[in-house]
Design goal:
Radius of gyration: 16 Å
Strand content: 5-15%
CATH superfamily: Glutaredoxin
CATH architecture: 3-Layer(aba) Sandwich
Oligomer: single chain
Number of domains: 1
Structural class: alpha+beta
Order of helices and strands: EHEEHEHHHHHEEH
């Protein structure tokens, strides 16, 4: 089964689009597997996030979102995504990474929640079908273990020479996800058909 790495961050609107695209691609190319690789794109963000003073997005971003049936506007807060990205490893341990991704993206981009707050994120975890109390406890007691996992993922990003989020990687080939769904699908289709790209 071809394994395509996807480097991403929840605070990236193009990654929201990539997540939506992934659902469609999995239906069309069931032999493909997406390995979501957290990559913190704003590591210097204050823990509480910052208030944003604009609500619109670029026309290019809006157009790409429309391709997959999404409408995007900037959330009122630019959150710190560090905790949310660590949470993916917890979700993956319980076989719920897809549900977790969906819940976190929805919370930030549709419900305007601050995914950088542990209490808020614990509630989101519950919506993904996971144990909110256990998650909160793990993030408090075993936090360093998840920090190590995130740092390992970010070292992988350096090795893969990742410059932008999202980036889909298969072997030595990659495509940045801030292009049309058609271009990304062409990449995925070639991977699904041949398990490698010339």
């Amino acid at each position: 089964m071809p394994d395509i790495k996807v480097y991403f961050d929840y605070v990236c609107p193009y990654c929201l689009i990539a997540n939506e695209n992934a659902h469609r691609f999995l239906l069309k190319y069931p032999t493909v597997h997406f390995d979501w690789k957290p990559w913190e794109i704003l590591p210097g963000m204050p823990a509480e996030g910052i208030v944003l003073d604009f609500g619109s997005v670029s026309s290019a971003l809006a157009r790409l979102a429309e391709e997959v049936g999404l409408w995007i506007r900037a959330p009122p807060i630019q959150p710190n995504s560090h905790l949310a990205l660590m949470g993916l490893f917890y979700a993956d341990e319980h076989g719920k990474s897809e549900q977790y991704n969906d819940a976190v993206f929805k919370a930030l981009w549709n419900e305007e929640e601050n995914i950088g707050e542990l209490q808020t994120l614990s509630r989101i975890v519950g919506k993904a079908g996971l144990d909110s109390a256990e998650f909160k406890r793990k993030m408090e007691i075993e936090k360093e273990r998840y920090v190590d996992k995130l740092e390992e993922s970010e070292r992988d990003a350096v090795r893969d020479n990742i410059q932008l989020a999202p980036t889909f990687v298969f072997g030595e080939k990659q495509i940045v996800g801030n292009v049309s769904a058609r271009k990304v699908e062409k990449f995925i289709k070639r991977v699904a058909a041949h398990d490698e790209i010339d």
